[in-house]
Design a protein that fits this description.
Arc Repressor Mutant, subunit A, three-stranded antiparallel beta sheet
Length: 127
């Protein structure tokens, strides 16, 4: 019996044949866009909860729960009574808040010959 399919995911992906091929290089399950769509669907449907608590939010962000608690005033979250909860969008926003992007200008090498370059005074030996 074929497993049920949803409109989002389509038919279930093909299992790898462990070295056996049918000669068709683009047989089912090899489409990267379809794979990413299926993966995204699985990740999104993994947890049916709309909101998560400190412990789960910290786990998903890869930080310690204490880190979230110490910065809660500066982070997006939901407050339901005395409970602090985080939505998926809150977690994505927190992640983007701390994204580090490289500077656009390339770093330049120091100018001058090696003879002109001298170590800082604190690094020089007293002669």
């Amino acid at each position: 019996m074929e497993p049920p399919t949803s409109a989002l995911s389509g038919p279930s992906p093909q299992r790898p044949s462990h070295g056996h091929t049918n000669g068709n290089a683009n047989s089912g399950g090899n489409d990267p866009e379809r794979f990413l769509l299926l993966l995204r669907h699985l990740l999104d449907s993994h947890d049916p909860r709309v909101h998560v608590d400190y412990a789960e939010a910290a786990h998903r962000l890869g930080v310690k729960e204490k880190w979230l608690r110490e910065r809660i005033g500066d982070l997006p979250h939901r407050k339901m009574g005395k409970f602090v909860l985080f939505s998926k969008q809150d977690l994505q926003t927190i992640s983007e808040m701390f994204a580090v992007r490289p500077a656009t200008a390339a770093r330049t090498a120091p100018t001058g010959s090696p003879a002109e370059l001298r170590p800082a005074r604190s690094m020089r030996r007293n002669a």
